[in-house]
Structure formats: C-alpha cells, structure tokens
Structure of Glucan 1,6-alpha-glucosidase:
Amino acid sequence: MQEKWWHRATVYQVYPRSFKDSNGDGIGDLKGITEKLDYLEKLGITAIWLSPVYQSPMDDNGYDISDYEAIAEIFGSMADMEELLDSANQRGIKIIMDLVVNHTSDEHAWFVEARKNPDSPERDFYVWRDQPNHLMSTFGGSAWELDEASGQYYLHLFSRKQPDLNWENAALRQKIYDMMNVWIDKGIGGFRMDVIDLIGKIPDQEITGNGPKLHDYLKEMSLATFGNKDLLTVGETWGATPEIAKTYSGPDNQELSMVFQFEHIGLQHKPDRPKWEIEKELDVPKLKEIFAKWQLELGVNEGWNSLFWDNHDLPRALSIWGSPEHYREKSAKALAILLHLMRGTPYIYQGDEIGMLNYPFKDLTEIADIESINYAKEALGEGRSEQDIMASIRHIGRDNARIPMQWNTSPQAGFTTGQSWLPVHPDFQEINVASALADPQSIFYTYQHLISLRKTEDWLIYGDFELLDTEDKVFAYTRQYQGKAYLIAVNLSDDTQPFSFAGQPEATVISNTDVASIFQNQMMQPWDAVCVAIRY
Ligand code: ISL
Ligand code: CA
C-alpha cells in the first residue's frame, strides 16, 4: 500500500458564513478565515474543507452556484481567496474546495441560457421532460418544476433554484473538468464532492443514487483533472455500502481518496423513516456494529475510511449522542477519542473542538435553512402543530450546526461586531475558544493531542482494528501494528459500566479520566475514555 499525505491528515470543516466575520455585516467571510489560521494551526489540522464560497444567490447557503469561478461578494473577492490559499499553504494547511456539480443555481449562465433558448447547447446541460414522474425533492415536493415558457419541466433533486445537471452530456462534463483544473492550478489541496453519487441518475427510471454510469464519470473526471496530482478527494455518498465504498476508494480504481458514508447517522432517526422522526437515544450496540463493519471491510489495501460525527447538515453529535447537561466536556472528549483512533481520515466540524451545542430554537422565525422551512410548511399543511415541528427542528435541523462560531465572551461571541445572521448561542459566555485555550483541561487540547498523534503513530494510521465484546454501552476496540497493540475503551453512558480486560495495560496514550482505576476496579465511570498501550 502506498502512503498518502491524507492518511495522516485531520481535516477541519469551515462553514464560511458562520466562522468569522471580518467586516461587521454579520456574515462570516474569507478574510475572517484567514485571520483565524493561527488558531487552526495551533489545533494542528493540516487541511480545511471549505463549504462553498462561490458566487451564488444563496438559496441553499452557497450549495446553489451561479458562477464556479467567482467568489460570492458577501464572502470577499478572488484576491481574498488567493490570500487564504497562500496563508494556509504557508502553514502546511491545504484547502479542500467544495465541488457542487450535481446541480447549479437557476441563476447560472448555463441555466439562464437553457431556459431562454430551448435550442441552445446549454438546454441539454439540464434535465427536461414533457411530463413529471414521481421523483421527489430532498427539500420537499415534486422534483420537477414547470418552465412556463417552454411548457417543459426541469429536474431539481434539491430546491427549485438548484436545477440538476445532465451528466449524460459530454460537453457539460468537459466544462466541469476545465473548471476543476482552474481551481487545481490555484493550488488547492483537493475537493469534497457534494452528493456525488447522484450524478449517474436516470430520471426516467427514477434512479437517483448509484446510477450505472457513476463510476465511469468519476474515472473520466479523475483522468481529466486530479488523477495524476496528489490531492484529497472525498465524495459525499449517502447511499454507500462498504462494497460501493471500495469501488470509489480502492487504491487501483482511480476514483476518489475516500467517501463519507452515513450509516451511523441513520441511527439519529427511526429506522427507514424521514430524518424528522427522531430517535431519542443512541443505539450503542448498533453503532458498534456499523463502525466495526466499515473498519473491517475497508482494509488498507481495499480502500480508505473517513471518520466524522457531524457536519453543516447535521445536529451537533455532542447534543444528541453525548451528555451535554451532565458531562458536556467529558462526553465531548469521549466522542473525540472514540472516533479519532479508528482507521481513516477524521473530519472535525467547526466548533466541535470546543464542545459547541445545538441551539434552543424557539419558533419558526429563528429558522433560516430551506430544508427546515420547507419541511415546516409541509407539516403545517398536514395539520401538525408548530410545537411538534419545532421539536424535530430543534433536535435535528441543519441550523443547529450553522449558528456562529463562539470565539470569546465579547458581544456576539466575538463572531461579528454587527448583528449575526443566525443567533449566537446563549451559552457563549461559558463555551468559547478563548476560555478553551486558557484551560489546559479543555476539549480543545484533547483534539490537539489526537491530531498530533496521527503525525507520529503509524499504528493509528495503518493498524488492524478489532472490536471487543463488552457491555452494551461500552465501545472498546484494539489497534495492532507491527507487534504493538493498543486498547481504546469508551463508556458511552451516564452510568458506571463493568469492564474487564484480559491483557496488561502499559502506558497511557490519551484519556479523559483516571486510567488506573478502570483496570483496578474493572469499572468504567460515566463517559470514561481511554487509550492505552497493551501487552497480551
Ligand atoms: O442532511 C440532509 C439529509 O436530510 C440533507 O439536508 C442534505 O441535503 C444532504 O445531506 C445532501 O447534502 C449536500 O447537498 C445539498 C446541500 O444542501 C447540503 O448542504 C450538502 O451538504 C444540496 O447541495
Ligand atoms: Ca462579513
């Protein structure tokens, strides 16, 4: 197996709108990110996944792009982007751009032309039909929108301002590859590919994910763009199984470095039900089963895992799977230790490193996300109460992750000198970067330690994974590499749990607790998490 820089990297996701505002308009921007590179360097991360900063009418906060080669004015200029790239690269931090090519904005020049002129080549860059079928939009309602001028319907698997591109069209594919090369030439470190498993769709057969030509397109893309460059490419693939993930990330397949799989995220809602039907408690045995399956099936010669708890589309993992009220700091460290010591490249969502939490949204007036707003409209129409709807949104809505980053105790948590676009969390006096940096016991330093371990510990990068048979609420596994072995054990509950281990614990690598007492008493206290070198 060939070593890659991204095997050792820890990626930090920045949601630009909510990271740091540099000019007081209440919206985070590129200059704000550049200002905070010292902070990210201190954390130790070596790559940033930057959510979209391209020109966009912002119907879906930038995941609706109207010009791939221009920067949205609210985020700054192309000069600001280049400054961010330079400053980051100087610090050994690569910038991974968000590549949103399943769809564009309806304000993209291609779509404007396609709509205006049905005989134009651009018309076929999108998907048009005389009659809609049953395909539904992720954001509610039919996936087909009538274009009155031509009497035809266009496909949008997301909002009606996000028309789907037609990947069957070779000229369109070439335009996308050209655009990707422009960004590669600017010195970026790779791409995170938005809903990439949808590009092989066959609308007439109502096939959306994992269409038959998906992997042909990716191989073609790789050959035309990043294939011979040393870049990190990660696909967002909701429908991936380990088998499918091997096709994408198998070292000989010439597709992607890795994909995001979402099987564990499925535990947030009722089995096979919409995300709004929430599951209140984490099914820990199921979580163990899912993670172990991915760890074992994606062996180092077969592919590569990505590891994440949350992102800009998901609630804070700490809020729904940790113990925010009783053990906020300890459970945040436990979740971090559990995830980062498995095999794969970890992704940290901004604010997780200080233990930020879901927001206590009161009513619909505080909600900005199109997905939540559309869901609320639909549910109200079906006669459900606002109270009920808010309970779901408060638990799982995307705005939870999108509230401003909490930097310090000054007004607006130091995010902006103006009025922030989403409310600042009322807990910012306690939970903020300045306080975390000042406290050597804070969550921040657990993350810093985990990130630094990747840089030196080969066992952590390449070691074998084995799940141990333990109490339901204890997640324990070993990593073994070249005669060395390590035990990672985490109590994912508010209760003490019995825990016995046959081997001999030697040195502690990292923990959030009194390690000796676990092995002496054969008991784990609530949210205890430990990694020790062991002898069998
Ligand atoms: O989280 C989700 C599942 O209900 C969806 O909100 C989300 O749309 C899905 O995860 C796909 O996400 C990506 O593509 C969307 C964009 O809104 C998301 O922000 C992006 O991450 C459309 O571009
Ligand atoms: Ca700003």
In short: The domain at 7-107+164-449 is CATH 3.20.20.80 (TIM Barrel). The mean pLDDT is 97.
